């Protein structure tokens, strides 16, 4: 009888020890955790080494940003040859820098970065370069003179987007006296700086177009509404709102309606991104034009990484193809918009 007890005890101890060993191998570490040395060569089980990609995203400030995040997660998440480590910086550069340092420690195979602002990247990108990890910029750039710190910038021509926004106004409002409120994107962001430059350069010789107020709405709906509300309390003699993204324009539309004015008629609405809500607003007569800025950059990022790993030379700027939507063209396109 005693023997049975002893054997039973040994069996229980054996099962417990084996179960404990099995658990430590299946533990998966989040991007920001301190890594194990082998993290960068995750095995796809078929013997081939996965490419481990670290992506430092800005946050979730707009519909555009959400569409870009979905594109990245879908692209890498559905490909067994890749493992994606994704971090959301909640709009803070220091969180993006921390994430990049974590990716370097984990010895990832490549780093993707959507830089929230243009400046302050030199030292952390030099650390990535010294670690032999290629960096790809997505959708926003960094200040000039740092081209050696990244392989390619994959994104739009923001100056052209600003010019396209102004061109609609020039083509449709002619030489009528026009007071403009400009809702700017995040302070210091390349998308904001260049959309401002493109728009203002395009109208600098047109005396009838006057920017009477320019203020950041930080690319968010809430802030765009807040800034517009405050301005309308001071002055309703505004003919155009130019918003650096559709989300701020949607916020401004709400503020204009609440002030008893008709957006799209009393005050023309011009914005950039091409999210579905902007197309719907044009259909509803509440907005006038949206300049497309492609957020579906996941496939281009994946291709750039594969090309780089295959030893190909990549363009320093991989441009997105984009269009301008207004009137019937915007209404016809609405059903097919994917974000
Ligand atoms: C543009 C991107 C901008 C979008 C905004 O490439 O960086 O940031 O226009 C987003 O909607 O917040």
From TrEMBL:
Low complexity biased stretches: 29-46
SUPFAM superfamilies in UniProt: Periplasmic binding protein-like I
CDD domains referenced in this protein's UniProt entry, alphabetically: PBP1_galactofuranose_YtfQ-like (cd06309)
Region described as Disordered: 26-46
Keywords: Signal
InterPro entries: Peripla_BP_I (IPR028082), SBP_2_dom (IPR025997)
Alphabetical list of PROSITE patterns matching this protein: PROKAR_LIPOPROTEIN (PS51257)
Periplasmic binding protein domain: residues covered: 53-291
GO MF annotations in UniProt: carbohydrate binding
Cellular component annotations (GO), alphabetically ordered: cell envelope
Compartments, as annotated in UniProt: Cell envelope
Protein family (similarity comment): Belongs to the bacterial solute-binding protein 2 family.
Name of this chain's protein: ABC transporter substrate-binding protein
